[in-house]
Specification:
By secondary structure, the protein is an alpha/beta fold. The chain has 13 helices and 13 strands. It starts with 8 loop residues before the first strand and ends in a 21-residue tail after the last helix. The structure holds magnesium ion.
């Protein structure tokens, strides 16, 4: 690091707030980096992993971002989603520090922006088919050109597959009738279907010209996803539970869109590589967005800099999110605007941390009438 001013990490501090895990990386200069981890069901485990990683990071130069990613992830080859989420949070904070150290937004350091603003999709919500149609119409009036619906009502897990398929088709048809065919519409299956039901449903949905068919089956079996993809004529979108470049490479032959989450799949460093891997196969990136207060601006920095970005969630831009950071992302008619500040573009508001205590994720069973566990 000859010729570069000295900078050292003093400590890394994790914060659990509402349902999010945020971190701050303190240095011996007047610079603090901000990050977020996104293993939302197991945040406390990631919290401990981040505390433990202090033993490696304290005293190190925060600007050796790739070096640190390699050093930690290849140390024992004991990787997994907990360590990957911890490393993702630290990676985002190190990019934040790097941006602040040279007074530039992170997207400038990633090769510059490929777009001036980031197109996002709105989520269609409702308890009845009529409410869904109305919600979709309102989102389009608000300027969104892409929508997504989960075509299940609350008790779908307990219904017969035949009824699930029937209801899902009614929902998608009602939305298409309301918005027509100028707007993109995707469906999110939340990993709830068996391959057979996923194929049955997709056949029924094919006439509605869907942009994507997200996570029809669980993430554990690439073979099952490949089987579905071979029998379905809707572009498949998957990957939000994957956390390394090798796992994404395995998906690429079967999908049109991948969903890396910057707070889980290795931070900005690793997700930029995953996006490039997809680019080589003409696969689009539809990043997964947990919607946390640092997650969102960190993702937007990356969205700006990758040519094959497609869409992600609009998120929920209201409290507590908007109180936890000082300059939350802003929206303008279906687009997120790029932050212009150095680094990621937000600072944690420490007084908001006490106001919103941590809300752990509970394991809630959904049971069929016979007492067996249903997919949620
Ligand atoms: Mg999803």
């Amino acid at each position: 690091m000859d010729g570069v001013e000295r900078l050292k990490i003093e400590r890394i501090e994790p914060f659990l707030v509402d349902r999010w895990l945020l971190i701050r990386v303190y240095t011996d200069a007047d610079l603090v980096g901000t990050g977020e981890a996104g293993l939302w069901a197991h945040q406390k485990m990631v919290y401990e992993a981040i505390r433990e990683l202090n033993r490696y990071f304290v005293g190190k130069d925060p600007r050796l971002i790739e070096h640190h990613w390699q050093a930690v992830s290849r140390n024992t080859h004991f990787m997994g989603s907990v360590l990957s989420a911890a490393l993702s949070a630290i990676d985002i904070a190190l990019w934040d520090l790097l941006g602040k150290s040279v007074n530039l937004p992170v997207y400038q350091l990633l090769g510059g922006k490929c777009r001036d603003k980031v197109r996002v999709f709105a989520t269609v919500r409702g308890e009845t088919v009529e409410q869904l149609a109305e919600s979709a119409e309102n989102q389009v009036k608000d300027g969104f050109t892409a929508l997504r619906v989960t075509p299940f009502f609350r008790d779908a897990a307990l219904q017969t597959p035949t009824k699930v398929v029937k209801t899902a088709v009614e929902m998608v048809q009602a939305i298409r009738d309301a918005i027509g065919y100028d707007v993109d519409l995707g469906v999110e299956l939340h990993r709830r279907l068996t391959p057979a039901v996923a194929i049955l449903l997709a056949k029924q949905l094919e006439p509605y010209r869907l942009l994507f068919y997200e996570d029809p089956v669980g993430p554990e079996s690439v073979e099952a996803l490949a089987y579905v993809a071979a029998h379905v004529n809707i572009p498949i979108c998957a990957g939000e539970r994957k956390y390394n470049i090798q796992q994404f490479q395995e998906l690429l032959p079967y999908v049109s869109y991948i969903r890396p989450d910057v707070t889980l799949a290795g931070g900005i460093t690793h997700c930029k590589k995953i996006a490039a891997l997809a680019e080589a196969s003409f696969v689009g990136v539809l990043p997964h967005l947990m919607g946390g207060p640092v997650n969102t601006p960190a993702q937007v920095q990356l969205d700006a800099a990758i040519p094959n970005y497609v869409l992600h969630e609009a998120g929920v831009l209201r409290p507590p999110y908007t109180e936890i950071v000082d300059e939350p992302i802003t929206m303008e008619r279906g687009y997120m605007l790029l932050p212009n500040r150095p680094g990621i573009g937000v600072e944690i508001q420490e007084d908001a941390l006490e106001k919103y205590p941590y809300r752990p994720s509970e394991i809630r069973e959904a049971l069929h009438e016979d007492g067996s566990i249903a997919e949620k």
